[in-house]
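debug: dumping io for the single-chain case to check the tokenizer round-trip. Nothing else runs in this session.
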Amino acid sequence: MNDELRKQSNSLNGKWISGINWTAAVLVAFVAIFAFILSYSSLRHLADNNGVGRLLSYAWPLLLDFAMVVFSLAILRAYLRQEKPVYPWILTIAFASLATLANILDASTLDIDPKIIRAGVKALAPITLVLAFELLMGMLRAEVKRKEEVVTIKELAANANELTEEIAGLTGRRDRLQRQIGTLEDAKSGAKTTPISANTQDKKAQNVRALLAHYAKNPQSSYTQAANEIGVSRQTVANYLDELEGDGAIHRNGQGVQVLSLEVDEMRL
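debug: decoded output
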């Protein structure tokens, strides 16, 4: 119940606030129109009385009024961009003060030398041009810098994405290598722990006896000839001879294989 009342209250308050904002906006528009008309009349009269000329005097007040509008828009833009509007605020306050002073001078010279007033009226145009142009250039420079920063951020984001993909790929490769290493270690461990079957031992014993018998008859036979004789590979013959020589059953003297014992039952097969 309380939540429903709160929602209704917030909705009603929102409508009232919206109405107040629109009313204030309309009234501000009327104030701006009337203020412009009254100020314009005084400023045009001041310009006409200080050597601007009747035709150009119609344009002179716009230097102040339009400049203040431009500076106020620059302040709004700075707030929207979350920048510090120091320079636009200085210009707005300065030109608002000049407009106020010009309206006062139109009603009374305040004991100011007319030559000074005329010089100020004449100097307003170039000063306004320089200040407004510099403000515009500053706004454009800020936009260019902002775009460069946006591009830099996009490039950094793209590089970050590429690095993330590369890291993901390397992580996948690492995981695959770890699995392969684990598989090889398991296979190696299994190979070490799996006992040699009796058939395999018997076959090896037969091959070794046949090899010893072959070299007993042919001490200068090559590994290839011995391999063909007993039906194994040349490397297997070399492995058998290494084991037999280590067990003292043969002796390789550089001229051939000398068989020292034909007994292989007690040998390490």
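debug: round-trip ok. The helical segments are 2-48, 60-80, 86-107, 114-193, 198-217, 223-230, 234-246.
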